Every structure is written in C-alpha cells, then in structure tokens.
C-alpha cells in the first residue's frame, strides 16, 4: 500500500464533513455519496 499525503498541494483531496468520504478530483462541489458539504484537505489548516 502506497501512502499518499492528503496535504500535498499538487493534488486536490476532498473530504465530506457529513459522512467522511474522501475523493481525489480537480473540483468537487458536494459529496457524491450523501450530497453533504466537502472541504479541500490538500490546503494547510491553521
């Protein structure tokens, strides 16, 4: 299994705030599983 750092700025990684689903894509408006709000986890949080 290859570990992929979700905080890499080269790729966009999104996580659903409702169900926790994660997906790597160019753009994601809402979760494909539950239609919940997603956040880009590839950007640093302070």
Could you explain the architecture of this structure?
There is one protein chain. The chain has strands at residues 13-16, 22-24, 38-40. Strands 2-1-3 form a three-stranded antiparallel β-sheet, with no helix packed on it. It is built from no helices and three strands. β1 and β2 (22-24) form a beta hairpin. The chain is globular and about 25 Å long. With 46 residues, the protein is mainly beta. It has a single domain, classed as Rubrerythrin, domain 2 (Single Sheet), CATH 2.20.28.
Instruction: Label the structural class.
Output: mainly beta
- Strand proportion, as a percent range, falls in 15-25%
Number of helices: 0
Q: Give the assembly state of these chains.
A: single chain
Uncertain residue segments: none
CATH class: Mainly Beta
Q: What order do the SSEs take from the amino end to the carboxyl end, as H and E?
A: EEE
Strand order of the largest sheet: 2-1-3
Mean pLDDT over all positions:
81
Shape: globular
Please state the second-level CATH architecture.
Answer: Single Sheet
- What kind of sheet is the major sheet? 3 strands, antiparallel
State the domain count.
1
Which fold name corresponds to the CATH topology? Answer: Rubrerythrin, domain 2
Beta strand count: 3
Fraction of residues in helices?
Answer: under 10%
Radius of gyration: 11 Å
Distance between the termini: 29 Å
């Amino acid at each position: 299994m290859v570990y992929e750092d979700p905080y890499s700025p080269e790729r966009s990684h999104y996580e659903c705030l409702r169900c926790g689903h994660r997906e790597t894509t160019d753009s994601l408006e809402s979760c494909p599983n539950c239609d919940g709000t997603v956040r880009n986890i590839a950007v640093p949080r302070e």
